[in-house]
Each structure stands twice: as structure tokens, then as C-alpha cells.
Design brief:
This protein is mainly alpha-helical. About 65% of the residues lie in helices and about 0% in strands. The chain has 22 helices and 2 strands. The protein has a two-stranded antiparallel sheet with strand order 1-2. The longest helix is centred in the first third of the chain and has 35 residues, at about 110-145. The radius of gyration is 26 Å and the shape is globular. The termini are far apart. The structure holds heme-A, protoporphyrin IX containing FE and copper (II) ion (CU). Copper (II) ion binds near residues 344 and 348.
């Protein structure tokens, strides 16, 4: 390349396209890479076509992309997570197919397999689990505490923008260049410039840094919202359990994300500026990276699983029609897990040469987490004990979780014993452990949450039959995919192996790929469920907004909720505020008066920063310095100019609020109540207006 081209395009050239590799060196590997790129480009084209054909651009821009409404931002997070989940699951299936094709080398090259587990791990943790969790918190938490939005709605929009642009980098790396081969943990010196001079680790670094800033801002936003914006009477000890897990998770985000950002930026300094933080020479030491990464990495898995515990707590209480058993012990257990999670990071590298004493201390600290987790498990079981259980889809996920998660947790306690960990560290036993906690723990919770809160978000219920089918497929698929890995792990098969030779591994590998295909069907059935439900939405409407006989405040408002959530801020008198109101006959009362409501105006700053930060990352990855600099200046200017905006709010007049609310109250009064004690009522039937006599 000429000097001019290098200045203009950095290290970007036509060779970066997968097609170039295919033309040069045709093989299965290149075909798979090209097919993946082609699917992505085609998928994007179809989306653009559909949006244009149905003239949806205006709606998309006005109602979604520029919205600062926490509910819409939450839904966009969840949609983004679902899209990324599809890619992550497909990659999981391809990896399982590669390993099932053994003994021998399978159909993929080692480097391509390494890209697959690196993108899969990175996507599943940072762009599936995190956006799912942040999305649910966004949608639910303000409704549960009786607030009209989060504390910083515009910052919330920016958080989403940064998360999405990070995820987009993983999509771009499918088509331009390649992704890292360093796993989701990206350990140097393997990801250092000397060993890995390509663009892969740089894609990882910038995707993590930018999306990490987005997530950190969300953590701050959520913590401030709960501290400052609870409805009158909503003391901390009256918070719904989900909100308690949100507080703890936000604290984990605030303290755990910075070490990750620091680790990634120091790695960038090593790679771009020839620093030596993590090299093997000139005073560097990769153990600094391992410590920084896991100082984040361990709390990370709990910041994902705590809100999942929160969702299950809500589900178990609602579908057992009982108060959550042991509320105070659950609060203490959640806080204990949050605190303890910062004291155990070293268990991820027991084998890296510390003294036996240090290993023992961290091992014991790790095992301690089993105690508060056990408290939770027993509290959930006690909640169900003698409850009037309805086996609806969220509850089925919950029961699947309870049984499977205990197995995954117990295998964690086994790993926490350093002497055992020396045998199974970095084998498929470890892979089995973490999928065993991540799928039933985090992913099932999210699917349960989708089924549970979908009627609230969209005003109609999801199809029950397809919901049940997908639970069955996910659970069975999970068992087949991951249980065999415990055994091959014990037999010594290392993680991240693109090939293997020992014929005794074969049956397990075949069982695992069958399981992965069943999981794929599970994912498809979720899509079918969405399709069928949208098609039949007229029959499944729940405009009153309380389809499950809910206990917390989000069920006390219409479905879908108005932009301002609550026409009048609720007065909270007890835990499970809405259940209490229904029991005491004070639900759905006509308020004495209405006020004007101020809401944040739409703005395009989040979208702009999303696009610009994407360009910025791309420029840094490909060393296009003028572009990186230009975009940095543009982003700074946008933020500065935005701070001068004065009219950032719209006012919804009291008269409009009154009209809308009274129309809904009239609808509530017209809707026939379903008797709570009617044994013949089908399990999945909502209780629109239980105990309503004389209420309105
Ligand atoms: C949501 C995610 C999640 C969760 C909840 C957990 C939960 C736990 N994890 Fe896991 N873990 C991961 C995600 C998670 N983990 C990931 C992703 C990795 C690998 C990263 C990588 O290398 O790529 C990992 C790796 C990992 C290691 C490192 C192993 C190695 O690298 O060799 C260890 C070691 O101690 C460990 C331990 C534990 C323990 C003790 C728990 C406990 O919290 C479990 C507690 C739960 C129970 C114990 C069950 C319920 C309790 C009862 C019914 C009470 C009775 C029980 C007793 C008294 C024992 N985990
Ligand atoms: C849905 C079906 C899934 C399948 C079939 C699957 C399969 C796999 C496979 C084959 C690997 C590589 C194992 C190895 O190292 O040999 C892997 C790694 C991993 N998976 Fe999954 N997985 C699935 C879901 C998930 C989910 C839901 C998450 C997280 C929420 C997740 C997180 C990870 C992580 C973090 C790694 C480690 C990546 C690395 O080694 O750096 N997976 N998975
Ligand atoms: Cu850990």
C-alpha cells in the first residue's frame, strides 16, 4: 500500500473481507466464514427492506430510537439480546458439531474454532446476558417502585447506544477482518501484539470498553433511581425482591466494571503504544491482567444471576399466590452474595502459582457463597409449600431452574476446592459448570421474564402451548448438551479443543451435539411462540393489566402502561403493595385529583453516540487515525452542545391524564372478575379483578 492509502485507510484493505480468503484458499473453513458473513448481510438487508416496505422508518425513529422512555429502552435492550442470542446459540451448535465430528480434526481450522468460542463467550456474557438483565431492570424496576422513569433518562438512552455499538463490532468483525481468538477472557500475552498482531484482539478491546461504559452508566442510573425515586411509603423493607437484587447488582456493576475497563485499556496500551504492562519482558507480568480481569469477571457472573434470582422470586410468589417466604433472609442473602463476590476472584486461577494458603483462603471464601444461595433455594421452596401453584410458563422455567441450578451450584463448590480444581481446571467439567449455572440461572430467568411481563409490555398474553413446548425443549436440550460434558471433563478433555483423539469421548460428544440441536429447536419455538401470539393477539388481550393476579405495583396499571406509568403516584402501605391493595379493597380507586406530568422529551443523542462510537471503534481497530480523532471531537461536541439544551421536557396536562385514567377505570369496572378461589378456573387464566366488591 502507498503511504497515502495507509494514511487514508490505515491497515484496512480488500484482504479483510472473508471472500478474499475464500478466493485465495477455498476450504470448509472459508465457506463457513463466508456463509456466516452472508447470513448477516442478508439478514440486515431483509430488515432494511421490511422497514422500508411497510414504511416503518418514521415510527421506528419517533417511537423507539429517539425515545427516552425506560420501558421502550428496556424492550430495545431485550430485542437486542434476543438477536445476539440467536447468533450465540448458532455458534454453540457449530462448535458442538465440530467436536462431534471427531476423533480427528473435524471440519474447522483451529483458528476459526478459536474465533467461535471467543465470539460465543463474549456475545453470551456481554451482549446477551448483560442486555437482557439491564433491559429487564429498565422495564420493571421503575414500575415496581412506583416511579415515572429512571433518574437519568437521557443517560439511559446513551447506555443503550453504547451497548449496541459494542455488539455491532462483533457483527462487523464477521464481515471485515476477524475477531479475537483469545476467548472471552482475552488473556495476554496470547492477545498481546507480539503473538497476535491482527485486528482480532482490538475488536474485543474496544467492544468491551465502549459497552462497558454503557453498562456502568446503567448501574449508576439504577442505583440512584432506587435510592431517590421510590413512591411515597415504599421503604427499603417494602421493596419488591427484584428491586433488592437490582440494588445489589447495580453496586456490583459500579465496582466491577471499572477493573475490566482498566484491564482492557492497559492491554490496548500494550498493543498500540508498545507499553509492557502484561508482556513477559521489560517488567511486565500477565498475572496483573488475570487479577484485574477476574476482579471484574467473578462479580460479573453474580451481577447477572442476582436479578435472575429476583425474577424467580417474583415468579414463585405470584404463581404460588403467596407472600415470598423469608423476605428479610432473602435480602440479607442477596447482600451477602454481593459482598462475598468481591472476595473470591482468585478461584479462577488456583493453578497459576500462588501459595497453598492463598488458594485455601479463596477456596473457603468461595464455598461460603453456597450458604446464602442455599438460603434462597430453601426460601423459594418454602414459598411454594402449600401455595396454590399455577404451572404457567414462567413457573415452569422456575421449577426447571430450581432443580438444574442446584446441580450447577454444587459443581461450583467442587471447583472451589483447590486440590480438586487442579484436576479439572480448564476441562469441559468447568464448561459444564458454568453453562449449568448460566443457562438455568440467567437465560431461563430471562425467558421466564419475557413470558411473565410480556402481557404488561404489550397488552396481550403469549401463547401458553408454545411456551410450554419451548420450556421442554430448553430443559431437555440443556441436559443433553451439558451433562455429558461433566463426564468428558473428568476424563480429561480440555476446554477450547478444536480436536480430540481419545475414542472414549465420542458418545458424549454425539450426545452433546444432539442436545445443542434440541436447544436450537427451543430457540426456534420461542420465535414461533412470538409469532403465534402476535397473530392471535386479539383473543389474548389483557388491557386491565393484571393477568396473573400480580402482587407488585407494575400490575396495578394498564397494559401497555401509559408513558407516565402512574396517573397518580401510588401510596405504599405494605410489602407486595398491589396484593395488599386488592385484599383491602383499595385497588383501582378513583384518585381525588390529577396533576400535570413532566416527562423527558425525545432526543437523538443516544442514537448519534451509538453510530459515532461504532465508527470510532472501527477506526481504532484499523488504525485510521484521522477518523478516530475526528469522531472523538464530534462526540465531545455533541455532548457539549446537548448540555445547552433548555427545553428537555414535555408536559402532559392533568386533563389528559384524567381522561385516560378514567377511561381505564371504567374498563376495569366492566371487566368481569375471576374468583380467586374458583378451583375450576384454568391454571393459566388471569385474575382480572379479584376481591373487587365495592372497590371503585
Ligand atoms: C451465573 C453464573 C455463575 C454462577 C451463579 C456461579 C456460581 C458459582 N461458581 Fe462459577 N463460574 C461461572 C459462572 C457462575 N458461577 C463461569 C462463567 C465460570 C468460568 C469462567 C471461565 O473460566 O471462562 C465459573 C468458574 C468457576 C470456578 C473456577 C474454576 C476453574 O477455572 O477451574 C469456580 C471455582 O471455585 C466456581 C465456583 C462457583 C461457586 C462456588 C458458585 C456458587 O455461587 C454456587 C452456589 C450454589 C449452590 C451451592 C447450590 C444451592 C445451594 C444449596 C442447595 C445449599 C446446600 C449446599 C451446600 C452447603 C454446598 N466457578
Ligand atoms: C444455548 C446453547 C449453548 C451452547 C450449545 C453452547 C456451547 C458452548 C461451547 C461448545 C463452548 C466451547 C467450550 C470449550 O471451550 O470447549 C462454549 C463456551 C462458552 N459459553 Fe456457551 N453454549 C451455549 C449457551 C451459552 C450461554 C447462554 C452462555 C452465557 C450466558 C454461554 C457462555 C459461554 C462462555 C462464557 C464460554 C467460554 C468461552 C471461552 O472459552 O472463552 N454459553 N459454549
Ligand atoms: Cu468465579
Amino acid at each position: 500500500m502507498s503511504a497515502f492509502e495507509t494514511t487514508l485507510f490505515g491497515r484496512l484493505s480488500w484482504d479483510a473481507l472473508p471472500l478474499a480468503a475464500l478466493l485465495k484458499n477455498p476450504g470448509t473453513n472459508e465457506i463457513v466464514a463466508n456463509a456466516a458473513g452472508a447470513i448477516l448481510v442478508l439478514g440486515a438487508a431483509v430488515v432494511l427492506f421490511v422497514l422500508s416496505y411497510f414504511r416503518l422508518w418514521g415510527v421506528l425513529w419517533r417511537d423507539w430510537l429517539t425515545s427516552t422512555d425506560h420501558k421502550k429502552l428496556g424492550i430495545m435492550y431485550i430485542v437486542f439480546a434476543l438477536v445476539m442470542l440467536a447468533r450465540g446459540v448458532l455458534e454453540g451448535v457449530v462448535m458442538r458439531a465440530q467436536q462431534a465430528a471427531g476423533p480427528g480434526d473435524g471440519f474447522l481450522e483451529a483458528g476459526h474454532f478459536a474465533q467461535l468460542f471467543s465470539t460465543h463467550g463474549t456475545i453470551m456474557i456481554f451482549f446477551v446476558a448483560v442486555p437482557f438483565v439491564v433491559g429487564f431492570i429498565n422495564f420493571i424496576m421503575p414500575l415496581q417502585i412506583g416511579a415515572r422513569d429512571v433518574a437519568f433518562p437521557v443517560m439511559n438512552q446513551i447506555s443503550l447506544g453504547l451497548t449496541v455499538s459494542g455488539g455491532m463490532m462483533l457483527m462487523v468483525s464477521l464481515v471485515v477482518g476477524e475477531f479475537s481468538t483469545g476467548g472471552w477472557t482475552a488473556y495476554p500475552p496470547y492477545t498481546g501484539a507480539a503473538f497476535n498482531p491482527g485486528v482480532g484482539p482490538d475488536y474485543w478491546i474496544w467492544a468491551i470498553v465502549v459497552s462497558g461504559i454503557g453498562t456502568t452508566l446503567s448501574g449508576i442510573n439504577f442505583a440512584v433511581t432506587i435510592y431517590k425515586m421510590r413512591a411515597p411509603g415504599m421503604g427499603f423493607m417494602r421493596l419488591p425482591m427484584f428491586c433488592w437484587t437490582v440494588i445489589c447488582s447495580s453496586i456490583l456493576i459500579i465496582f466491577a466494571m471499572p477493573p475490566l475497563g482498566v484491564a482492557a485499556l492497559l492491554l490496548a496500551a500494550d498493543r498500540y503504544l508498545d507499553f509492557h504492562f502484561f508482556t513477559n519482558d521489560l517488567g511486565g507480568n500477565m498475572m496483573n491482567y488475570a487479577n484485574l480481569f477476574w476482579l471484574f469477571g467473578h462479580p460479573e457472573v453474580y451481577l447477572l444471576v442476582l436479578p435472575a434470582y429476583g425474577i424467580y422470586s417474583e415468579v414463585f410468589a405470584t404463581f404460588s399466590a403467596k407472600k415470598l417466604y423469608g423476605y428479610v433472609s432473602l435480602v440479607i442473602a442477596t447482600m451477602s452474595i454481593a459482598v462475598l463476590s468481591f472476595t473470591v476472584w482468585l478461584h479462577h486461577f488456583f493453578t497459576m502459582g500462588q501459595s497453598a494458603l492463598i488458594n485455601a483462603v479463596f477456596g473457603v471464601a468461595t464455598m461460603l457463597i453456597a450458604i446464602p444461595t442455599g438460603v434462597k433455594v430453601y426460601d423459594w421452596m418454602a414459598t411454594m409449600y402449600r401455595g396454590r401453584i399455577r404451572l404457567s410458563v414462567p413457573m415452569l422455567y422456575g421449577i426447571g431452574f430450581l432443580i438444574l441450578f442446584v446441580i450447577g451450584g454444587l459443581s461450583g463448590v467442587i471447583l472451589a476446592n483447590p486440590t480438586i480444581d487442579f484436576q479439572v481446571h480448564n476441562t469441559l467439567f468447568l464448561v459444564a459448570h458454568f453453562h449449568n449455572v448460566l443457562l438455568p440461572g440467567v437465560l431461563f430467568a430471562m425467558l421466564a421474564g419475557v413470558n411473565y411481563w410480556f402481557p404488561k409490555a404489550f397488552g396481550f398474553r403469549l401463547n401458553e402451548r408454545w411456551g410450554r413446548i419451548s420450556v421442554a425443549l430448553w430443559v431437555v436440550g440443556f441436559l443433553f448438551t451439558f451433562m455429558p460434558l461433566y463426564f468428558v471433563g473428568l476424563m480429561g478433555m480440555p476446554r477450547r479443543s478444536f480436536n480430540w483423539e481419545d475414542p472414549s469421548f465420542q458418545p458424549y460428544m454425539i450426545a452433546a451435539v444432539i442436545g445443542a440441536l434440541i436447544i436450537l429447536c427451543g430457540l426456534l419455538s420461542v420465535l414461533v411462540q412470538l409469532y403465534v401470539s402476535i397473530r392471535d393477539r386479539a383473543q389474548n388481550r389483557v388491557p386491565v393489566g393484571d393477568p396473573w393476579d400480580g402482587r407488585t405495583l407494575e400490575w396495578s396499571i394498564p397494559a401497555p402502561p401509559p408513558a407516565y406509568n402512574f396517573a397518580v403516584l401510588p401510596q405504599v402501605r405494605d410489602r407486595d403493595a398491589f396484593a395488599e391493595a386488592k385484599e383491602s379493597g383499595t385497588a383501582y380507586l378513583k384518585p381525588t385529583g390529577y396533576d400535570d406530568i413532566e416527562l423527558p422529551k425525545n432526543t437523538s443523542i443516544g442514537f448519534l453516540l451509538c453510530v459515532l462510537s461504532g465508527v470510532w471503534m472501527f477506526a481504532l481497530v484499523w488504525w485510521i487515525w484521522w477518523l478516530a480523532l475526528g469522531v472523538t471531537v464530534a462526540m465531545l461536541l455533541i455532548v457539549i452542545v446537548w448540555t445547552f439544551a433548555t427545553e428537555t421536557e414535555v408536559v402532559i396536562p392533568a386533563a389528559q391524564v384524567k381522561a385516560e385514567h378514567e377511561a381505564w377505570l371504567a374498563l376495569v369496572a366492566r371487566t368481569p372478575a375471576v374468583d380467586r378461589d374458583d378451583e375450576a378456573a384454568p391454571a393459566n387464566l388471569g385474575y382480572a379483578r379479584p376481591d373487587m366488591e365495592g372497590a371503585t
